[in-house]
Amino acid sequence: MTRAPMAAVWEELGGDPALLPGVSTVVRAGALEAALPVRELARACVGACALAAAELGARRAGLARVPRVSVDDGALATAFVSERHLRIDGRSPVNFAPLSRFWRTADGWVRTHANYPHHRARLLDALGAPGDASAGDVAALLAGRSARETEERVYDAGGLAVALRTPEEWAAHEQALALARRPLIERGGAAGRGGPATARARVLAPLSDGGPLLPAAGVRVLDLTRVIAGPVATRTLALLGADVLRVDAPGLPEDPDAHADTGFGKRSALLDLAAGRRTLDELLASADVVVTGYRPGALDRFGLSPEALAERDPGLVVAQVSAWGAYGPWGGRRGFDSLVQVATGIAVSEGSPERPGALPAQALDHGTGYLLAAAVLRALTERAERGHGCVVRLALARTAMWLTDGTGREEGPGAPGPSSVGEPYDRPDAWLSERAGPVGLLGHALPPVSFAGGPTDWSRPPGRWGTDPARWT
Predict the structure, then answer these.
(1) CB of 452 within 8 A of CB of 51?
(2) Residue 29: how many CB atoms within 10 A of its CB?
(3) pLDDT range class, residue 415, cuts 50, 70, 90
(4) Among this protein's residues, is 365 annotated catalytic?
(5) 197-206, 264-273, 278-287, 356-365: lowest mean pLDDT where?
(6) Catalytic-labelled residue, pool 243, 288, 337, 365
(7) What whole-number distance in Å separates Cα of residue 166 and Cα of residue 348?
């Protein structure tokens, strides 16, 4: 019998299986419907995150029992497309730029990603197109080219393009073979060598009575992530009470709509990591958690590789998320959810080789984000018990392989607790909220992470990108 996805994830996180019956599910027809088991993936990722939060909260609050966790399909379906539900003063954001799409090639399909200006410029340069080229111009250029040749040419130029592959073609790819040898959630590494933390004592204060249970209260999280997966993880930690400081380079602006969607509960600062080395060192000296979401190797020159951070401070929890993993022939490549779907055969599974499709949500991003938050929360619980930190790594492409190969639709041994059937999911209104903030009146999805006594919304709306000081509160 297939092992329940939630139980499999919880085991990879090192959690106590005796806690699984405390997770209940509200099942709603119509939520995240797809050819692949997207809803089951979402339940497992969010459920594991909520259970890890409840476990840490119970420990810090001295509770006799871990609070019960509730996973609602309606909340999942709404939160997994939070970027689509965002409204800023009534305006809907544009999630994909005109050159971020599928294109017909001479021998198949290729998908490009050009939401950021520098990625658009590199794509056009690789194709030999002028800077003001239209979608029609690009379509005409690609129609006479090979998909695989385009993939390599664009990546060599620093852009992003991926040729459509079937599940069978991906399974035979060297990167897929490298991923298959790794667990879904990599835990341990340089920071998990077994000795107590020597840099500074890290004893999180007991949680006080009154107000919602905030398991991560007092935890300082240095957020070095962009786009969706990493920011979803740190947005979740902020929901749970962490002091999350997102730091970006002044010359690499974030899309303001993306920041508004994932900036809830956080502060946002700008820092040149080279020129501002002293400030970076001060932030690292007091951080409990560092989360990175740039392509592997991109931050190494600043001493921010997982290995360097763990060596610097054995008590630190280091979390890394990447598109393709930090190994294999594609380990150093940039990537996004939409491109990973195309490479790994998901686009064929959700459509066909002749007309590729897509998941109903950027589920690799969102699912991996909640898994990353869960891994951080479990690492904090284990640090309280063992005295040392941990390195955790996740990759969108590895999550994709779990979705296509390892996430069953049937509940097997170790399944969570009871489920109930709710009204079909046809409108997201029950899981949307509205609040005013520095960027305007925001309509947004509510968090899906839910446990008894826990928070139901973020403590603060997102501020404007890069306007907070680069220091801890």
Answers:
(1) no
(2) 12
(3) low
(4) yes
(5) 197-206
(6) 365
(7) 6
From CA 411, how far away is CA 448, in angstroms rounded? Answer: 21
Q: Which two tokens stand for residue 341?
A: 């779907």
Place of tokens 């790994």: 344
Angle (CA) 348-349-352 rounded to 5° is: 45
Query: Is 199 a residue whose pLDDT tops 70?
Result: no
- Judged by DSSP in three states, 372 sits in helix
Tell me the per-residue pLDDT of 425-472, one tens digit each, with 9 for 90 and over. Answer: 999 999 999 999 999 999 999 999 999 999 999 999 999 999 999 999
| Burial state string for 207-246 with b = 16 or more CB within 10 A and e = fewer than 16 | beeeeebbbbbebbbbbbbbbbbbbbbbbbbbbbbbbbbb
- Residue corresponding to tokens 């610097």: 312
User: E strands, 197-351, where?
Assistant: 220-224, 243-248, 267-270, 289-292, 317-322
Only one residue has tokens 């059937």, namely 421
166 by Cβ neighbours in 10 Å (0-12 / 13-18 / 19+) ranks as middle
Q: How far apart are CA 14 and CA 386, in angstroms?
A: 13
CB atoms within 10 A of CB 335: 22
Return d(Cα 56, Cα 62) in angstroms, integer: 10
Place of tokens 């099942």: 27
pTM of this prediction?
A: 0.95
What percentage of the chain carries pLDDT values higher than 90? 88
124: helix, strand or coil: helix
Residue from 432, 342, 347, 336 nearest 84 by CA? 432
